[in-house]
Amino acid sequence: MTQLSETTNRWTTGARRRYLKALPATALLIDFAIMLAVGFVAIVGRRELDIFTASASVESSLTFAGPAMILGWLATIGLAGGYRTDVFGAGVDEYKRVLNSSLVAAGLSGVGCYLAKYELSRGFFLLAFGIGVPALLAGRLVLRRVIQTARRHGALRQRVVIAGSRSHIDEIAAVLRRETWLGYQIIGALTPEYDLSEETSTGVPVIGNTGDATTVVQEVQADAIFFAGGAVGASSQLRRTVWDLERHNVQVVVAPSVTDISSERIKVRPVGGLPLIHIDPPTWSDASRWGKRTFDVVGSFLLILAFAPLLVFTAIQVWLHDRGPVFFHQTRIGKDGREFDCRKFRTMVVDAEARLATLYRQTGYDGGLFKMTNDPRVTKPGQWLRRFSIDELPQLFNVLAGEMSLVGPRPPLPIEVSRYDDHTARRLHVRPGMTGLWQVSGRSDLTWDEAVRLDLYYVDNWSMLQDLSILVRTLGAVAGSRGAY
């Protein structure tokens, strides 16, 4: 029976590793297919649009140049590391490599044709790379979504062992368990020899000592090992372990005790062979500058104009239901602790606040944001208003007035702020937002601690690109109605 189990385990491990190794080939085939499709579109576009005049036909000039451009483009991406296994599924490194290598390929193609005096259609060249670069990035995005979905369902995962002290192991394990799309399956932990525990406080089983890392990793057929704090007593020990593991095709990851910091704030600078991690200051002050405010003013004004018919229709529906007030006004806390009047379309009965104490007792509410499924106070129009977040559209006027931002932490209630500790109060460094990481990560399905963690991550790691990404992801969150009730 044991032999059968071991045989099955080896087959499963081999199949998993083959699937993981197939990712580069899959990406290569997708890129090749996209380049062929873009080439066809560029040929048709050049001929139909007649962008530039040319003596020869487009097809004749591509007899040699077409295949050479595609092969050169793919080779440039490959040389830049765009098909390495470790770039798939997470981070922006994959997109950067594809983008930079595509620009290099375009430059080499243009310069090469010029020096060789080859008559390549300029219209085709502009269309091919003008359409091709965004198309390649879109293809990688689709591939990433497929990979992440597969990982969430238990496929394409790497078996991981975490080495370190129990507290550091639990920190790393919490992140890997929370972010299942990363594709790491924790199979055990390695602790120092003096630690005789059988498992960590969060339930990660201890399967050996850090000094026996190579042997244990082989026995459990791990794909990667994470070295957390307390894993080794000296750098020479880690170096020897890395040397031992290089013969067994095991990925080695050093996980410093740093979490919830964006890659833009981290710089690794080797000094004398010692890799030093430099962490830039939090960027919350940048979120208060004129660039973000200008974006908020212009964006909210245009959205108000675009949604004007929907605003009028919704106001009429809310009033016709029970002839009560159209808007719900509530005091919220904004930037630097300033109070403001937050406006929403009313989605509950008129005496909703009076019924709140009874619901507190029924649900055992003990602090934080109060949310419940099937809230009896929600009106019939309020159900679809909440489902698609239409009730929050009047907050565009709060954004226009400078009390809120399009993207930011969730606007808290005064009673919530009164319970903040110094750690949580960092949320008040920036304007609250109509949407944010909390909105695109589950909305009401999030626990209080998860919502705070996401808000603090946003405050400390703000960037304009992140705001744009959140706005795009908000459309999907609203359309899917996940966590809306």
Automatic annotation (TrEMBL):
GO MF, one example: phosphotransferase activity, for other substituted phosphate groups
Keywords: Membrane, Transferase, Transmembrane, Transmembrane helix
Membrane-topology descriptor: Multi-pass membrane protein
Domain Bacterial sugar transferase as annotated: residue spans: 292-478
Transmembrane segments: 20-44, 64-85, 97-117, 123-143, 297-320
GO CC annotation: membrane
Statement: the UniProt record of this protein carries the keyword RNA-binding: no
InterPro entries noted in UniProt: Bact_transf, EPS_sugar_tfrase
Protein localization: Membrane
Name assigned to this protein: Unannotated protein
Organism: freshwater metagenome
